[in-house]
Design goal:
single chain, alpha/beta, Nonspecific Lipid-transfer Protein, Chain A, five-stranded mixed β-sheet, two-stranded parallel sheet, 4 helices
Length: 146
C-alpha cells in the first residue's frame, strides 16, 4: 500500500489515471504542461501530454526551477493530506477539497510560476480540472500517510 507522498503513490495514481478515459474530463481531456508539486519537503514533477500523464517523478528544488516547469502547486502537508483523505472517503474531492476551491479560499494562490511568468502560471487555471481528475484517481488505490 503506497504512502502519500511518495514516488510509488504518484506512480500508482498515474497508472489508474492513464488507464481510464472517464477520468479525462478536464478541458476535453487535453492537457499539455509540466507541473511541480511541493508537499512539505517532498517535490514531484508531473508531465501531462494530451490525455495522458506521461511522467511523474521525484524532483529536486533545481528541477522545479525557472525553465523546468510551467507552474508549481504548493500547499502545506496538512492541506494536501486533507484533500487526499477527502478523496479517499468520497471517491472524489467534495466541493471544499478541490484544488480550485482550496486555491480560491487561500490568501495567496496555491499555484505560482518559478519564473514569475503569469502566462505559464495561468496554465494551472486552464488545466486544474485535469489535475483534479488525476488526484481523484487516487480514490482507487489504498493510501497511507507519512
Amino acid at each position: 500500500m503506497p504512502s502519500f507522498p511518495s514516488q510509488e503513490w504518484f506512480e500508482e495514481v498515474r497508472q489508474v489515471y492513464n488507464s481510464d478515459s472517464s477520468l479525462h474530463s478536464g478541458g476535453g481531456g487535453a492537457c499539455h504542461t509540466r507541473a511541480g508539486f511541493e508537499i512539505g519537503k517532498h517535490r514531484y514533477l508531473i508531465v501531462f501530454d494530451g490525455e495522458q500523464c506521461g511522467e511523474v517523478r521525484t524532483a529536486s528544488p533545481e528541477e522545479l526551477g525557472e525553465e523546468a516547469v510551467d507552474f508549481i502547486i504548493g500547499m502545506s502537508p496538512k492541506l494536501w493530506r486533507d484533500m487526499i483523505a477527502n478523496i479517499q472517503a468520497n471517491s472524489k474531492a467534495d466541493l471544499q477539497h478541490t484544488l480550485n476551491s482550496i486555491d480560491l479560499s487561500s490568501e495567496e494562490s496555491i499555484a505560482f510560476s518559478p519564473m514569475d511568468d503569469q502566462y505559464r502560471q495561468d496554465l494551472f487555471y486552464r488545466y486544474n480540472q485535469n489535475f483534479q481528475d488525476y488526484f481523484d484517481a487516487s480514490s482507487r488505490i489504498e493510501t497511507t500517510f507519512d
